Amino acid sequence: MNSLHLLIDRDACAACDLCRENAPNTFEIDAEAKARVINPEGDPRDVVLMAADSCPMGAITVHDAVTGERLVPKG
What we know:
Number of helices: 2
Shape: globular
Number of strands: 5
Strand order of the largest sheet: 1-4-5
Largest sheet: 3 strands, antiparallel
CATH topology: Alpha-Beta Plaits
Order of helices and strands: EHEEHEE
Structural class: alpha+beta
Radius of gyration: 11 Å
Strand content: 25-35%
């Protein structure tokens, strides 16, 4: 279990598709051409963190769902 809380700033999202390319079981690009979380536990934790960190717009924020620690972007 990943125990991650993922937030996407849809205003900042440019639909570059890197998140979906890197973690296709976690992210998708929706009909509005914005990233969307389809399953926060769809890919291994390290893959989800790397995918979120790869967002050039910094539109994805990830917190540990148990501790609340912000993992992406690093604080």
